[in-house]
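Exam prep: given the inputs below (a chain plus nickel (II) ion), describe the expected output before reading on.
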Amino acid sequence: DVSGSFVSPDEVRTRFSRAMSDMYRDEVPQYGTLLDLVGEVNAQVLQAQPAVQQDMERTGELARLNLERHGAIRLGTAQELGTMRRLFAVMGMHAVGYYDLSVAGVPVHATAFRPVTDEALHKNPFRVFTSLLRLELIADEALRAKAADIVAQRQIFTPKALALIEQCEAAGGLTHAQADAFVQEALETFRWHSDATVDFSTYESLQQSHRLVADVVCFKGPHINHLTPRTLDIDAIQAAMPARGINAKDVVEGPPRRQCPILLRQTSFKALEETVRFTDHTGSHTARFGEIEQRGVALTPKGRALYDQLLAQVRSMENAGSAAPDYVQRLARTFEQFPDDHTAMREQGLAYYRYALTAAGQAQAAEALALLQAPEPALNVLVARGWVQAHPITYEDFLPVSAAGIFQSNLGGQEQRQYQANAARQVFERDLGGTTLDELALYAQAQERSVDAVLQALMALVV
Ligand code: OOG
Ligand code: NI
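Solution:
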């Protein structure tokens, strides 16, 4: 069996995300400052709230907490996206979800490459939000053709990276030495290049079309534009950032602060203004920014609909954009309609949970089994009796459209233009060379698997 000599995709992912983090820390000093702050705040939360610590220990999330981060890149061509899919597959990361950002006035669509199995997520949930530029949304025909021509000519992958991807696909894995080489070669694609591939006037005309178009088209590769660590208390981070010289945006995107966090809350700080050597003279560009996030429980379609409805309600209030001075209060008041305890969320089918049989449940196996096998399976009764425990399933995905404030705040301009809201998912999947997995189905399956495991355990006890 040769597979024993291969490094697991999880291990390749962990090596890669470490290398990426080290590279980004060198390139963007404030990222290092943020990591230190996040480490301190997370330690404080765990110390102040032993229940959180115990719960994270029990679900295996504690071990992944300080490894956990996501990055984002923006690609220029279908071919780049197709190869990126193969590159991430080497690290056990697969395309999950389809995001149409044109509805937020940003000319891209996207997916998130991430691990999908329970075990792989526990080892290291490293994710990369990956956008593909939609050149067809550039209105000026000549500019569109020029942009297409520029990106068609670049090669964002090193020859060795391409060879190692093929090697992995052919052999079914990489050896230790190959994995190390792969990490170094793959990293090259994500590195910042201060040499642009175009002259300044080309940059400017693309920049006028949309800042994001210039960011994708004018450079040698898809520099990682942010790397986001996960905090257990985003409000504490937000409050502590100014004292460390980090100027965060005013408002945290997403749901309000809650006892039981849901989905994703994020805040960001302004990109570096970086010196860029265009082919004719020197200028500058803002590509990279900092971001921080707090993750909560994944919502069911019913929970997500309620979330979207409440958020839309806040935004439709007069003068209530996220820049409004009382936005935070309005958000909190509106979200009083979203139950803030896990029992209510679970019983109302608003969120996903992983179920586990307790010792008390094992002791009552026969009755517990009868309840689970009843025509109306009474899982909630088992939880209420303490026979089964329910652990929130963490949301592993993104909310870029409802958090369009992040995109906008870091583009610097007032680009609120709306592109036609025509989701082009099929075209995206053709370019990807594969389908995108449905994130809601993944959460539902994780929940089902846990219920099934409880059932199997009970059946084994009742013989
Ligand atoms: C990606 C923005 C999406 C998030 O956390 O929602 C994202 C980008 O700016 O390229 O990273
Ligand atoms: Ni992000």
